[in-house]
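Need the bound structure for nicotinamide-adenine-dinucleotide, inputs here:
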Amino acid sequence: MPSLDGKVAIVTGAGRGIGREHSLALARAGAAVVVNDLGATLAGEGADATPAQQVVAEIEALGGRAVANGANVASFDDAEALIRQAVETFGRLDILVNNAGITRDRMLVNMTEEEWDSVVAVHLKGHFAPTRHAAAHWRERSKAGEDVRARIINTSSPSGVFGNVGQVNYGAAKAGIAGFTLIAAQELARYGVTVNCLAPNARTRMTEAAFGEIPVPEDGFDAMDPANMSPILVALCADEAQNVTGQCFFVYGGAVNVLRGWDAGELFARDERWDADDFLAQLRERFPDGLAPLGMVEQMASAGGRSARLAAG
Ligand SMILES: NC(=O)c1ccc[n+]([C@@H]2O[C@H](COP(=O)([O-])OP(=O)(O)OC[C@H]3O[C@@H](n4cnc5c(N)ncnc54)[C@H](O)[C@@H]3O)[C@@H](O)[C@H]2O)c1
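Answer from helper R.:
Posting the output first, comments after.
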C-alpha cells in the first residue's frame, strides 16, 4: 500500500459505511484522520457523536492518530471549522474525502420541497463547503512557495452517472458532484490539488434501504463489502497519482471503470442556423427508434453487469 505517512486527512460522513472504511484505510496507510460525522439518520435527521467517536477509537486501537468532528457538512461555517480543526490538531491538511450523504427517495411527482432541498444540501453544498475552505488552505500554502500535493476525493453514485428512478433529488446532486469534480480539478490544478470522484457500490444502510437486504456470500469474495472502495481511494491519495485528476471511478467489488462522462456524441453540423423542421427530420432519420435513457441496471450492464439491486435479488 502506498505510504501516506505524515499526511492529514478529513473524511466526512465517516462514522459508518463507506466513510468508516475510508478512514480506517487512510489510517492504516499512515495518515492522521479527522473523522467527521453528524450522526444523522439515513434521512438526515438528528445528531449523534457516537459513530465518529467509535471510528476514532478503532483508529487509535490500530495505533493511528484520529480526532472526531460532528460538523454538518452542509453548513459553510461548520465546514470552515472542520478544516481549521484538522490544521490546528495535526498542523496541516493533505486529503479531503467528501463522503457524507443522505437519501429521501420519492418519485418526482410526489417529492416534497423539503425532500429535494435537504438531499441537495447535504450532497452538493456538503461537497462545496469543505472543498471551498480546504482549497483556501492549499492556495495559501502554494502561494507561500510549497510544492503542494493535495487530494480531494468526492462521492458521486451510479444514480448520478446512470440515473435511478425514485432518486431525482439524490441523482441530480450526485450528477452535480461529478460536474463539480471536473471544474474543481481544473481550477485547483494550479495549487497542486487533484480532484477525483468515486461512484461506489457497497452494502450499507443506504443500499439496504433502497434495495433490501444484500446477503453476504458464505464463502469467496464479498463484492459488496464497503471496504472494497478504499484501496482505490488510497491509490488516488498517493503522491504518485499527482497527474490523475478530474476522473470518476465506478467501483463494484474488484471491477473499477474510469467512467467517460458527457462526450461530444452525435454531431448534427451545418454552417447556418438549423430550421426546426429540418432538425426534426434529421433526428427522426438518424434515430428512427427514438432516444431515451436506458435505466440504471441496464447502464450498469455496460460496466460489467453488476448492480446492488441485482445483488439484493
Ligand atoms: N452504499 C452505496 O452503494 C453507495 C452508492 C453510491 C453512492 N454512495 C454514497 O457514498 C457515501 C457514503 O454512503 P454510505 O452508503 O456509507 O451511507 P451511510 O448512511 O452508512 O453513511 C453516511 C454517513 O454520513 C453521515 N452524514 C449524513 N449527513 C451528514 C451531514 N450533513 N454532515 C456530516 N455527516 C453526515 C451519516 O451520519 C452517516 O454516518 C454517500 O455519499 C452515498 O451517497 C453509496
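Comments: The mean pLDDT is 96. The first helix runs from residue 17 to 28.
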